[in-house]
């Protein structure tokens, strides 16, 4: 039965508690322990039962309880203290961005298909979403003019449970947005603010919701509105579900609808940051808007839009990229071809590594790469992997010169340490700076002043809390599975709070090798069951519902863990989410990560563990490849990459057993007369001091500001100024160069001492004759490209030295350069030519490099 009228019922808060609701709707409370404890005081049991959701809490608690709290001087004093912190945070004019002379210039909009902010907002699936959540929290702390853009999912990602055989099953629950810290944006008449995007033969309408994350708003589009048909209302039902048609509709809504939502809200960001390729269609919408408003051609508008676009790729394998067939692109963008002034082939070429290959599918990552001037991977190793993956966009460039950089991920220090036993210890010895300046390495050096006894006791309390949490979850899992009473009772007694505890939790993709530890069951049994030095393992994680091998991995792991010889020392905690993750990273002694290198782009769980005093044992992949040193953790192998996966698993499982047997377990149980593992504690301190400041999203976002946001804001403003004069001139110049480029070639290269040996420190003069056709010397950059010669006779990791023009005659120019011999060995050089213009982006133009032959 449809209602005649709908309305929202709000809690009847007493006047003295009125601002509790304001606090509930700003996720600042999620990284302020004092604020979390305030909500716990409202009703501790209800707070836990409602998934730590303060909006539901205030709506569910009894009126008599609210009235009693209003009369409670202690509670009101607590509220006033939290509100004072909250108001100071929001009103501060001395943020990092302010202190460093930041100018909004339109600000930054960060587009991500998911945001993992807190367990009370189940609209995320895993690591990439949690990273987005940490990113926006740090942007808020740093005072950057920043807004997030995403979709609001009616069911979000699935809730996991296992059947008696260990097979993953999924439950979906409707999110009641009116009982979550999210609010509808409304127009001047109080009606929900909406935008629309075009689907084949129809329009899809979406309303805009807002989540306040400290100072930064997050806007989310919701297509579950009456204006849409049933098929389109499902666009925002589930995350990462459905076929390619559903995926392209979601990505059209995110990218194009997201830009339109910002415009409807009066926001026009200078910088749009695409967190993975899902949002890449935003670049087309930015171009379309600029063309219409400024009367620009596609190529002119592209210069401005690309200048203000940043693209972060998280995927180390081509199979992880969204690819669409040309027919699907025709359906959704056929009318855009003419509107943008492009032919079908030109449009499809924007999403192809080889724009002339009609068989190549349309890649969202390639579209983002081609329409962004700042592209990066999420660790140094992933940057190298990405340059190899996408070299096809610049086939004429050596792989090390492919313009994809790296900004290593981090974690939000305040959020992931909030509520931990380490938090008061940091307050006492590091002072408030660990919260306010978490990326300052000097602040974390004070960890060495913490008495070993105090650090160890805090860590032990964290492990005790984790064991208590896991026991309760395991007991409830057994109940829900319909287990016998004896099994339910036993579940509540599993694990030992005094035993070395290893954590392993992640998405159950096969490359993460969750069962590597079970390669030699007898050896594992000896490690776990040593009477004097026992070990226990807590495992958690989900497999995508359509990932059958991943689900089978979970089933295999459950069956292995149930082996009687392991003595119930391996447990699986179901329904991995932010709450489970927080308990694990704050309580484990050791974090295990054993992906198949180089398939882990970054990984952030180990960073969270290090922040909370735990240690890492990991394959040298992702972040650990740059973080590892022997004094702060353990490396499985030395970064080898294998062609035989089975052989690799054998070698690396043996290496893992060796580390556990000979290094990790003995160090943990090596206790002095005072009962302290002083060697272990020393590693804890070194790990915290080294990892906490660098692997912080504050450092990460500051690096984005320096390397991407600030340059993009400046360049976007320059190209847009004066009626887009510079963009028009640059596009015209590019068109002229493109038309003449077929005539450009290196005709001749000569040098002194060409065939003889030379000595270190000597110089070699090189002269090149270049045919320029209709171009002039100022239109090109001619370089000596030199470096060491590898075993295949190729220049390895070369570098360019600019040559200078020395005369023009008959469409040809002579260029001279000097090569300095800075090291010995077999070396070589060649000459290359590429376009050059004062306004040209530092990214080489694809297809426009000429090498001497």
Q: How widely separated are the two ends?
A: 77 Å
Supply the number of structural domains.
Answer: 4
Shape-level CATH architecture of the largest domain: 3-Layer(aba) Sandwich
- The computed structural class is alpha/beta
Radius of gyration, rounded?
29 Å
- Low-confidence segments: none
How many strands in all?
28
Task: Report on the biggest sheet.
Answer: 10 strands, mixed
Q: Examine the coordinates and then state which fold CATH places here, giving the name of the CATH topology of the largest domain.
A: Rossmann fold
CATH C-level name of the largest domain: Alpha Beta
Report the total helices.
30
| 3D shape | globular
Mean pLDDT: 95
- % residues in beta strands: 15-25%
Can you identify the CATH superfamily of the largest domain?
Glycogen Phosphorylase B
Assign a percent range to the helix content: 40-55%
């Amino acid at each position: 039965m449809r209602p005649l009228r709908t309305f929202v019922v709000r809690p009847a808060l007493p006047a003295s508690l009125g601002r509790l609701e304001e606090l509930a709707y700003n996720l600042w409370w999620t990284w302020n322990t004092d604020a979390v404890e305030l909500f716990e005081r409202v009703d501790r049991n209800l707070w836990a039962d409602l998934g730590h959701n303060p909006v539901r809490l205030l709506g569910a608690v009894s009126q008599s309880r609210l009235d009693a709290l209003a009369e409670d001087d202690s509670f009101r004093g607590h509220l006033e203290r939290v509100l004072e912190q909250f108001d100071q945070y929001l009103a501060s004019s001395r943020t990092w961005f302010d202190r460093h002379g930041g100018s909004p210039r339109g600000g930054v909009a960060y587009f991500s298909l998911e945001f993992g902010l807190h367990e009370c907002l189940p609209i995320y699936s895993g690591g990439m979403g949690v990273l987005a959540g940490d990113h926006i929290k740090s942007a808020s702390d740093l005072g950057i003019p920043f807004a997030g853009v995403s979709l609001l999912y009616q069911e979000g990602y699935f809730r996991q449970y296992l059947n008696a055989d260990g097979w993953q099953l999924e439950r979906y629950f409707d999110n009641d947005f009116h009982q979550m810290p999210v609010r509808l944006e409304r127009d001047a008449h109080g009606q929900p603010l909406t935008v629309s995007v075009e689907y084949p033969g129809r329009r899809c309408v979406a309303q805009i919701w807002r989540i306040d994350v400290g100072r930064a708003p997050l806007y989310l589009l919701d297509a579950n509105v009456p204006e849409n048909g049933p098929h389109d209302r499902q666009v925002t039902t589930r995350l990462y579900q459905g076929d390619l048609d559903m995926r392209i509709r979601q990505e059209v809504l995110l990218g194009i609808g997201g830009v339109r939502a910002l415009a409807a809200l009066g926001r026009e960001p200078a910088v749009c940051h695409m967190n993975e390729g899902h949002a890449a269609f935003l670049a087309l919408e930015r171009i379309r808007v600029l063309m219409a408003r400024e009367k620009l051609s596609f190529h002119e508008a592209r210069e401005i839009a690309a200048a203000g676009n940043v693209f972060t790729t998280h995927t180390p394998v081509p199979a992880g990229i969204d690819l669409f067939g040309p027919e699907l692109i025709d359906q959704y963008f056929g009318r855009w071809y003419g509107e943008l002034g492009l032919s079908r082939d030109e449009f499809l070429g924007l999403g192809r590594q080889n724009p002339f290959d009609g068989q190549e599918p349309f890649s969202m990552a390639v579209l983002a790469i081609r329409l962004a001037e700042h592209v990066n991977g999420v660790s140094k190793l992933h940057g190298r992997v990405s340059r190899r993956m996408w070299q096809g966009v610049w086939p004429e460039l050596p792989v090390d010169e492919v313009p994809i950089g790296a900004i290593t991920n981090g974690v939000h220090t305040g959020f992931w340490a909030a509520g931990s036993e380490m938090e008061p210890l940091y307050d006492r010895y590091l002072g408030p700076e660990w919260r306010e300046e978490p990326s300052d390495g000097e602040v974390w050096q004070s960890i060495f002043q913490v008495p070993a006894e105090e650090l160890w006791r805090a860590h032990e309390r964290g492990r005790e809390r984790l064991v208590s949490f896991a026991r309760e979850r395991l007991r409830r899992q057994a109940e829900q599975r319909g287990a016998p009473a004896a099994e339910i009772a036993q579940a509540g007694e599993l694990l030992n709070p005094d035993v070395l505890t290893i954590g392993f939790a992640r998405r159950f993709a096969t490359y993460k090798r969750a069962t590597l530890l079970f390669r030699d069951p007898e050896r594992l049994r000896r490690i776990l069951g040593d009477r004097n030095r026992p070990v226990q393992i807590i495992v958690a994680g989900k497999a995508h519902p359509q990932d059958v091998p991943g689900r089978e991995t979970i089933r295999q792991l459950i069956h292995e863990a149930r082996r009687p010889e392991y003595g119930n020392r391996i447990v699986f905690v179901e329904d991995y989410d932010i709450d489970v993750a927080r308990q694990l990273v704050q309580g484990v002694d050791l974090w295990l990560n054993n992906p198949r290198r180089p398939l882990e782009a970054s990984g952030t769980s180990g960073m969270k563990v290090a922040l909370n005093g735990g240690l890492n044992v990991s394959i040298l992949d992702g972040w650990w490849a740059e973080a590892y040193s022997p004094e702060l953790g353990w490396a499985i192998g030395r970064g080898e990459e294998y062609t035989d996966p089975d052989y690799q698993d054998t070698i690396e499982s043996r290496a893992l057993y060796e580390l556990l047997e000979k290094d990790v377990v003995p160090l943990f149980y090596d206790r002095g007369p005072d009962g302290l593992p002083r060697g272990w504690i020393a590693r804890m301190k070194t790990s915290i001091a080294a990892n906490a400041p660098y692997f912080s999203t504050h450092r990460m976002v500051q690096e984005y500001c320096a390397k991407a946001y600030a340059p993009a804001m400046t360049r976007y403003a320059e190209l847009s100024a004066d009626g887009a004069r510079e963009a028009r001139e640059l596009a015209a110049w590019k068109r002229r160069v493109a038309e003449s480029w077929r005539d450009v070639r290196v005709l001749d290269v000569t040098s002194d001492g060409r065939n003889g040996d030379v000595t270190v420190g000597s110089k070699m003069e090189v002269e090149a004759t270049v045919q320029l056709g209709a171009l002039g010397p100022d239109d090109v950059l001619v370089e000596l490209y030199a470096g060491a010669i590898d075993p295949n006779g190729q220049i390895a990791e070369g570098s360019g030295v600019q040559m200078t023009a020395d005369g023009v005659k008959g469409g040809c120019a002579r260029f001279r350069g000097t090569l300095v011999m800075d090291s010995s060995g077999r070396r070589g050089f060649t000459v290359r030519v590429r376009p050059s213009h004062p306004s040209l982006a530092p990214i080489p133009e694809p297809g426009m490099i000429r090498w001497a032959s």
